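INTERNAL AUDIT FORM
Audit reference: QA-55
Scope: verify that the stored structure record matches its stored sequence.
Auditor: D.O.
Record contents follow.
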Amino acid sequence: HRIVVDSGSRLGSSRAKAPAVALDGSAYAVLTRSGLNVEYQAVSSQEISQPKIILTGKASLTQPSFDAHGWVWAVQKNSPGQILVVRPGTGNKRSWNDLARVEAPRLRGYRLKSFRISWDGVRAVVVACQNKRCRLLVLAIERTQNGTPTRLGRSVDLLPDLVSATDAVWA
């Protein structure tokens, strides 16, 4: 997939799939075709940055998702119970990436089909499967005072009788 901005400039590459956009439109994140890397590009009225890989998984990753604090989330589909998230440096204010390890004990042992962060960055909606049965979970995101995510906390199973699902998104 290629994303074209008003100037006609192209974002991403021919290897890209599953795009996500920051809330303010200042950045894009895509999965590379292998599904193992998240590629990031910042966008301003003056320029589009070169794509850079900001996350790499040992196994396939879910589609990237931005939160209101600028963190990019993409989770290994075979969830290890801990998630690595990144807030990319912008090059002007911050040239480095912030990394955070987010504890996710509720997801341990599940295979994830979908993982999306709400626009306000307060919740995650997850399609998590185990033993031929899927769950549609909403989990609270716990953060430090400065907004760094630390843990996926309390969860609600939205459809307890659900058998199968492939994706969930916030409307």
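Auditor finding: record pair retrieved intact. Residues 54 and 69 are 16 Å apart (CA to CA).
Action required: none
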